[in-house]
Amino acid sequence: MAEKVEKVVIIGSGPAGWTAAIYASRAALEPLVFEGAITEENRMSGTLPLGQLALTTEVENYPGFPAGNMEGYLDTSIAEGRRSTMAPHQKEGVSGPELMELMRQQAANFGTRIVTDDIVDVDFSTRPFKLKSLEGQQVAAHAVIIATGARANYLGLPSEDNFKNRGVSACAVCDGALPRFRNKPLVVVGGGDSAVEEADYLSKFGSIVYMVHRRDALRASKIMQDRALKNKKIEVLWNTVVDEVLGDDKTGVTGVRIVSTVGEGTRDVEATGMFCAIGHTPNTTFLKGKLEMNEKGYLKWTKAQRTYTSVEGVFAAGDVADDYYRQAVTAAGTGCMAALDAERWLATQGI
Ligand code: NAP
């Protein structure tokens, strides 16, 4: 029997992946989505199914979800078995996990098939393309849409690695409410919008939040800067970097050693948690040498205003190809573009 060849396989399950799936399924391309595997490694690196939005709380800037109670709507739109995966209903607007469940459900409603597994290897050298999953599944596909997104960066210190899950985190929203952080001093590393957002969020739990920033000016937007500078529980430690996470096996993190970037020496800051907010890395390791990337590992779009990659028939959408806008709505937009590009390209191939 001839091997089954999928018309389009979508890798990734953030807004780009689900939007691509909604459009591809409505175009009768019967998409197969690899939404990612539920593994400890993925949990640690922030690459579980549903992507980065599943690690956030309120989403206030996704059009179509103004503040309001989502409860009734979610109960009638999400399949019963999936409702428990979401945090309790938000009273004001939609949350990240809720938005992702809604998108996943919408894709499933149009017949998208979903596999809870990672694609770990690809062969784009011949057509149909070959994909291999973590669990060993082999799939052949005429077209592939990469929507694997990006993940948070860490400083890369051995002491930081040692205390992951015991005070070191890159997601305040996921971990900030844990008892170890309540009414205790906390540290956020970074000076961008994410750092301010994390510090602001953590200030609801910690006694004080120190933002450790390597320069004398924040990178964050004006509105976010104001939010940080006006918050009496946030103190910025200008011109400093963390050079060691302090702690012990029993208590986890007890503080950080910071070193001045302007020659003012080192000092220890007491804290029960350190949250990294120093940017992101695209999830493209499995594509190294297979598709063209920029110097930071983001996939390159090779045709203006299109989601084409360096391999014909392979398209990229969302944060995996975008280190500039990086918004849920832009990811969804490029997911739509990738599905339309794939549909039109497949038509030129007679598929
Ligand atoms: P970002 O803008 O790239 O900021 C990263 C911050 O981390 C910078 O302040 C950078 O310092 C610092 N940093 C990077 N590597 C470091 C290292 N090894 N050691 C110490 N500090 C380091 O990243 P982001 O804050 O995640 O934001 C990314 C994009 O998402 C931006 O476009 C942002 O506007 C957007 N965003 C928006 C919102 C919002 O509007 N609500 C929220 C979050 C993110 P330098 O400043 O010295 O480079």
Summarize the structure.
This protein is of the alpha/beta class.
Structural features, described:
There is one protein chain. Helices cover 25% and strands 25% of the residues. The chain is of the alpha/beta class and 351 residues long. The chain has 2 domains: 5-152 and 280-348, FAD/NAD(P)-binding domain; 158-276, FAD/NAD(P)-binding domain (3-Layer(bba) Sandwich), CATH 3.50.50.60. The strands form 5 sheets. Strands 1, 2, 5, 6, 7, 8 and 19 form a 7-stranded mixed β-sheet that branches. Helix 1 (15-26) packs parallel to helix 9 (328-348) and helix 7 (193-202) runs parallel beside helix 8. It is globular. The structure holds NADP nicotinamide-adenine-dinucleotide phosphate (NAP). Residues 155, 189-195, 197, 214-215, 219, 221, 241, 277-279, 326 line the site of NADP nicotinamide-adenine-dinucleotide phosphate (NAP).
